[in-house]
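fwd from M.: "can u put these together and see what the complex looks like"

so here's what she sent:
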Amino acid sequence: MHLHHHPFCPHSRFIRLVLAEYGIEPDLVEQRVWERRPDFLALNPAGETPVIVEQQAPSVPGAAIIAEYLDETRGLALGDRRLLPNGPAERVEVRRLMAWFNDKMFLEVTDHLVRERIYKRYMKADQGGGPPDATVLRAARTNIRYHLKYIGWLAKARNWLAGERMSHADLAAAAHLSVADYLGDVPWDEDEDAKAWYARLKSRPTFRGLLNDSIPGMPASKTYADLDF
Amino acid sequence: MHLHHHPFCPHSRFIRLVLAEYGIEPDLVEQRVWERRPDFLALNPAGETPVIVEQQAPSVPGAAIIAEYLDETRGLALGDRRLLPNGPAERVEVRRLMAWFNDKMFLEVTDHLVRERIYKRYMKADQGGGPPDATVLRAARTNIRYHLKYIGWLAKARNWLAGERMSHADLAAAAHLSVADYLGDVPWDEDEDAKAWYARLKSRPTFRGLLNDSIPGMPASKTYADLDF
């Protein structure tokens, strides 16, 4: 399996975490989506990461669609560790929270942080490159506080974010927090419950791949790879 | 079943079309999401329409999540008319296109049209109300041409947008086009294939509910309810 991704695209990170839970180690192909390369647009006309490609199968584009596809083709094999529960009502809650983080938190927080602080370093001026926009960053740093609080509230009320078992909801939330954490933009002191929940996830062997990522000339925050942050 | 919706929210219209294909007539509850009413936020913390509520079941929020839930609980009963195909690869294509229209076309076209031309009429100034923003409308009217062309290209290459059978992809595309059509913002003359495909959908009895909708003081375009537009 090939995973077309960017190391700091939060949706790509979500799929890396999901694949790791399945024990799948994909070949990683880095994409810079702002270059709009024709061979990548052929895999995903929407021009967005992540996309998975398996031999003799059509490409599967988009975080939510990949998560459903993996569950449909391999979910039962995970047994008790299945990432999408069996009951329709429980699946609703997992999907609601997965969309909350992949769609809402992305639009309000991580899209801004990653674009302004990372992608723009690599974009040419006509692709939207340049210095980060301070107003946009300020909004993202305000918005993350409310998402962190919601995560803490869920983690305190339940064992995992969507219920008794770890699910796509936890991995989506952790993927988004992980890019903000690399950049030092998570106010961990503001929510002990969210912090304890994230520490549990971060200690999983499946998280190691993300913790090894780095950006040349932009080292990770002190908390990023520290399991006792 | 209750459907919390707005008559001109394209995601709500998508679910009305889906429910009609199942033969379900929900009780409609109109929501003005910009009012952020606490009883509605309790049903969907994201504060967005649509949401379905069945007796003795948790609420199901969001167009994509409702579509999956209905397929999981009632899809098999549709037999050959099932709106999400049985094979994983075919499901990927239906979900990709459903997301294309519900997410991408929404952000680029219908969110702008509906917000600027309809919702703002009902919003107070502190809720974002006021006259439509001409620049935003111009962008939406440019963007719709490319979505219409994509629909035409798919409709010509296949029987329905995602393959041999009608699916969530067709109903999502039709729902978004229908609000633009009410407003007279679909350049039908630019794509005969898209027009012929839409005429097929519009003639279905399941479409009638939408064609009866109207906004006081803002009549529908001439093409809207005309089956031979």
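replying to her w this: Chain A has two domains: 2-81, 88-211.
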